[in-house]
C-alpha cells in the first residue's frame, strides 16, 4: 500500500499508464496504476483512506535495497536479471543492492506471459520509464532535504549525487516523504539514458537467479510440498479427444500399501476427456498403481491416425487454392503466373517434434478459504487462471497460480492443461493433490510441434539477380493458437482468423514485387492432438522451406546464393522497417549477412564433399525482428550419407544487448536446438499417439555431435529485441543448403537423415 494525496476539490484520477511513487512502511513503492481506465468507488475510497495498493513494480527499502517484482517466468533464461537491469540502470541503483521477486497471479500485474521472445522487447520501455520516474522522485526528495535544485542532482550506484554531498537511497527513503504521480504523458516524454550512459545494461554482472540455483534453494514446481496432500498420477486415454472410459479394474493396485483409489475426472471444459487419476500416499506408489490399474476405453475417432495421414492432408491442402487464408498478397502473383507459369517448385516437410523439458509436468492444487491455490511453474499464468476457473466451475477471482522456477519450458508450459488433473482430483476428493507426470505420461500428453507441409512456386525471368518475378508460398500445419481463440487475428483481407504464430516467418524482408502466402490449418492434426508452441514456433519450420527454396531459385538463376540474398534486401517500402521496433529494416538484416560473409571467408575453396550454406531469419515476427545471418559448414560422407556438421556461425543484430551473458546463452541454446531438429530429433504419430515416449528412442542432439559455434553480436543502439527463440530458425536451412553445396543433393525433409542423402545421390 502507499500514501497517495487526493487532489483538492476532485477525486484523484488514475489510469493504467499513470505511475506513482509513495511511502509505505519505511519503504518507497514505485508502481503503475491499476489496469482499469477508471477507478471503482471502492478504489476511490481506499485512496482516500490511504490504503490503496496499485500495481507495484519495485520498491526501495529503508536499507537501500531495490526489490524488483518480476511477472515473467524463469526457465533458465535469466529473465529477472534482464528486466531488473532496465529499472536499476535508469534508477541509478547499486547492482549489489538489487534483488528480484517472482510474483503470483493477480490482475494488478496485467497479462502474465513468457513466450515469443517478448519479455525484453515489450518490457524495455515501460520498465525503463519506471526506473527513470523513480530516479526523478529520489532526486526531487533529496533536493528538498538538502535545499538543492533537482537540476543539479543525479543518481549513481545507489546514491543521489548533489553539490552538497551524496545521499544514499537508504537515507533519502528514511528521511523523505514521497507522494508523486507521473501522468502517462509525463511517462511518454520521460528522458531516458542514452546507451553510452548505461552502467548496468550491457555490462558483465552477476545474474540474480544463479545463486539459488547453485546452492539448492531455488524452488521448482516439482519441489512443492503441502501439509496433508496426496499424490496423483494420471492414466491417459488412447486419444487426446473423444475417448470414453468403459470400465476400471483396480484390483491389482489395491494390493499396494499406500494406494488410495482412483477418480474418473469430470472436466466441464472438455480439455481432459476420458482421464483417470490414480491416488496414493506417496509418488512411487502412484507410479506403480498407474501401471497396475486396468482401464478399458471406447477410443476416440483419431485412434488410427498416422503421421503419413497428417502429411497426406497437408499435401492435399497446399494444392487446393480454396484452402487456407491469405497472409501476404503483394503485387499480382496470379497475373504473373498466367504470363509466365511457375518454372520452379518444391515441397518441404517437417516431422512432429516434442519438448522433453527436464522437469516433467507437475502441479499441486488445494482449496483454502474459497480460493483455489495452484502451485506450478508456468509460462502463461493468466491463461492458466482462465482455464482452471472454467474446469473448476468458479470465477477467475477464486483461482491463484503460485509461480515457481521452471525446469525447462520451451513453449510446452504456455498451456496450463497439466494443472487440470491436480485441480480436478483435489476437487473430487476434497484434499490437496500433487500430480506428477512420469516421462512417458508427459510425452503422451505433450503439445507437440505439428508436422508441416510447405509448397513454394516461383516464376523466373532472365538469369541473374532480378530473375525472381513472383513467389507463391502455401503451408499447412496444426495451429497452436486455435486453442486460445482470442489470440487469433484477422487475415489480410479479413475473410477469416489465422494463427499468427503458425504464419510468421513467411512475411519476410526480401523485396519481391509479386509475393503471395497462404496459411492453412491442418484440421486432421488439430483433431488428433493439441498443437503446441515449441521454441521458434512457426518460423522454425516455415523458414526451413523458404530459405532452402531461395537457394534453389538462386542456383536456377545461376547466381551465388549469398549474393542473391543481398540483392533482395534493398530496404525499400515496407522493408524499410518502422520506429521503434524495426528501425533500419532489411538493411540491418543485409548488414548481418555482409558481416557473416567476411567472418566465414565465404568463397574460399573447400575440400571435396564439404560445403558452406547460408540462411537468413528475423526472429519471431516483423514487429519484433531479431536479424540473424547463419552459416553452416558440413562434410558429407557419400558412402554412408552421414552429415558431419563442422561449424555453425551466426551474426546477430538484436539492438541493445541488455544482459550479454544471458544473450549468448540464449543464442547458443537456440543454435543447439536448431541443430537437433535439423539432423536428429523427431517422432511420428502411430495409432493416434506419438511413437516415442522416452529418450531411449527419441534422440535429440548429443554432446559428442556438437560442432564449433561462432556467435557475433552487432553493436547497436536500437531497441532491444528477443533472443530466446531466434537462434533456432536459420540453422536447418543453412545445413540443407550446405549439403547441396557439398554433394549437389537437395534435402527437403526434417530431420535430414543419412538415408535421405543416399537416396538423393542414387537418383543423381
TrEMBL record:
GO terms for molecular function: oxidoreductase activity. Residues 215-301 form the Aldehyde oxidase/xanthine dehydrogenase a/b hammerhead domain. PROSITE patterns: TAT. InterPro entries: Ald_Oxase/Xan_DH_a/b (IPR000674), Ald_Oxase/Xan_DH_a/b_sf (IPR036856), AldOxase/xan_DH_MoCoBD1 (IPR008274), AldOxase/xan_DH_MoCoBD2 (IPR046867), AldOxase/xan_DH_Mopterin-bd_sf (IPR037165), N-heterocyclic_Hydroxylase (IPR052516), OxRdtase_Mopterin-bd_su_IorB (IPR012368), TAT_signal (IPR006311). SUPFAM superfamilies: CO dehydrogenase molybdoprotein N-domain-like, Molybdenum cofactor-binding domain. PANTHER family: ALDEHYDE DEHYDROGENASE (PTHR47495). This is Xanthine dehydrogenase family protein molybdopterin-binding subunit. It comes from Pseudomonas synxantha. The lineage of its organism: Bacteria, Pseudomonadati, Pseudomonadota, Gammaproteobacteria, Pseudomonadales.
